[in-house]
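Note to self: user wants both folds in one dump. Writing first protein now.
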Amino acid sequence: MTTERSITVPTRDRALDRHEVFDLRSAGLLARWPIIGWMMFIFGSLVFGGLTYNLLAHGPLLAWDQAIANTLPAIGLQSPPYVKVLMIAGFYLGKDVITVIDILLGFYFLYKRYWQELAMVTLGWLGAATIFFGLSTLLDRARPATQIWIIVNIPGFPSGHAVSVVVFYGLMAYLLAPKMRTVFWKAFVVGMALLLIVFVGFSRIFTGGHYLTDILAGYAVGIAWAGVAYTSIEIYFQRRRKENVKKE
């Protein structure tokens, strides 16, 4: 006669699983597969180069830029009030919200002594801001004259919002997705990051804050910078860990 025994997961183990999900440490994918980061850099650089050439040579995409810049803000002015609230929210999701979360994450990583992740979030943020300021100042493209609700006067190519959302929300997906236990939740995390990236970019076009190619150029710069920065940081810390192991 056999008896059946039910197998249960100890409460402590379940608590540990939950703890690990929110323990924001990199899984080291870019260090193991640096080709991913280098391909991101090459792809982003080529796209940005093509868009920059189109801008300087007054290429055909400028006509699309102007047509969209004339159409979407006009639609916005005729839209219900909630559309205004939603589109303005996109501005803050791509700037102030990122700044606040970056600072909080910086303190978190500093407290936990997660130096690699601290470097990723700090250098990613500072690098994105520096690259945007340098490129936009150099290329000095004026923003659309049809801006509504939020008016910004500094040069807009590439879009600083677009650079920031790719670098920041992309990093959040990179840190969180590997910790999800099912394919559904991994896809959910990646999908939410992509949704936020697209939404912020669309909101800046809709309100006339940027031309379409400003946003696309910002995405390209964000992809290139995220690829080279995060890959380089992970490789550096991986080598340091190996050297420490050898010394021991």
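First done. Writing the second protein, which came from a different request thread.
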Amino acid sequence: MASRLRVAVLTISIVALSLSVVGAEESADVTAAFSSYKSAILGGDGKAAVAALSAATFEYYEQMRDLALYGSEEEVKALSALDMMQALMLRTRIKPKRLKDLSGRELVVLAVDSGWIGKSSAARVDIGDVTLDGHSASATVLNRGRPTTQSVAFAKEDGVWKFDLTSLFDQSSAAFELMAKGQGGSTADFVLNIVQTTSGEPVNQNIWQAPFERPADSGSER
């Protein structure tokens, strides 16, 4: 009886140790995914950035592409501050016919290669403690090495950990909303001012008009 108990305890200890090792390896892989993305942004390497990002990220950019191409003024103004800015930026930066042919993955490549994703903010951000939950994970955001209240998400796709860039967007959008309120104007006016400042050229009210009518069968759009 005593020998069986010792064997059971030993077995449990081995399993616990194995899980601990696996967990440490998984956490290291999550951290590596973020490091790969950060390096790609700092190096302006769109293809490398895409390799580190999740499918949810590309789906988001495809939604922004469709809003830029087909979204009405009412529809775009109803978006969150960040999504509104993303859609309007695409309208000003990419000719509609070209935008129509770009996938979410191709949009990310173009954005990184063109320097549209800020290097300065990426340079000061890292991740800390990683929490694993099956094929999902989250990690604390570090700003200049100090923990923040923010976290980012990761997804394990085909056995590889990928960074979900969209996990940053809700928090970023909330910050934009607060800034807009602080200036006393509407969110739409605040976003339009950012778009104009970023583009360096006057932006008129026509920017709210969609370049194309939305297809009757939206499923035909990529």
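Dump finished. Worth passing along: DSSP finds ten helices and four strands in the chain.
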